[in-house]
């Protein structure tokens, strides 16, 4: 469940919003972000390229016939949102968003502007509450869990400590979805710049935010039992790029991939 709004404590969704150039953040979020940028300036590049990865993968899935999306850890509304991308391809697409930040909840109406043919819903819950999300009215009334669903985990898993069993939670969520469903993950890595991201992680931890950056093998492990969609789990700049990027894998520092449940 969402905790009471504490504007004096930074929250990942609002720090991310600031790094994207948004305005839905507080002084504590901006201070944490600026400290993170001083530790590693590439922290500003990752969120922007992550949004581009979101656009490419959601459009790919919608064009592949996926009509249902479960976006956990959605963050503050940033157009185009998942439903806008999916419904531009198929207006009948259905999308459920889930997050536990009170400011995201306050802005959830911006996530509920569905095309008339489709539907959107919002669930007030954290990633760690996977079973509760699946059992929520928002999911049960919006998605048909006998039909394929795309589970979207964009830039959320690196905020989950190993002790909170992120692999088990992802596996249980995918177990609840039928064959033909998809998993999409993007995840910050320190593989390309261990020192820079170690400094960034230290700043985030001092601010009370978990930050567990994972290697390529560790990110690929989330797709265990799924059929990889080419090109597999790769630096996100290499996942079906639409144009040349001015950035490098080191600057973006995100792995991403798409897997299909047999």
Plain-language structure description:
The chain has 262 residues and is α/β, with parallel strands linked by helices. Strand 2, helix 5 (102-106) and strand 3 form a beta-alpha-beta unit. Strands 1, 2, 3, 4, 5, 6, 7 and 8 form an 8-stranded mixed sheet that branches. The protein has helices spanning 12-19, 27-39, 45-63, 82-89, 102-106, 130-135, 137-140, 166-175, 194-206, 216-220, 249-252; strands at residues 68-72, 94-99, 119-124, 150-154, 182-188, 227-228, 234-235, 254-260. It has a single domain, classed as Vaccinia Virus protein VP39 (Rossmann fold, 3-Layer(aba) Sandwich), CATH 3.40.50. The chain is globular, with a radius of gyration of 17 Å.
What order do the helices and strands come in, and which of them pair?
Blueprint (H helix, E strand, L loop, with lengths): L11 H8 L7 H13 L5 H19 L4 E5 L9 H8 L4 E6 L2 H5 L12 E6 L5 H6 L1 H4 L9 E5 L11 H10 L6 E7 L5 H13 L9 H5 L6 E2 L5 E2 L13 H4 L1 E7 L2
Parallel strand pairs: 1-2, 1-4, 2-3, 4-5
Antiparallel strand pairs: 5-8, 6-8, 7-8
Helix pairs in contact: 1-2, 2-9, 3-4
Structural class: alpha/beta
Number of helices: 11
Order of helices and strands: HHHEHEHEHHEHEHHEEHE
CATH superfamily: Vaccinia Virus protein VP39
The number of distinct β-strands equals 8
Unreliable spans: none
What characteristic shape results from the CA principal axes? globular
Helix residue percentage: 25-40%
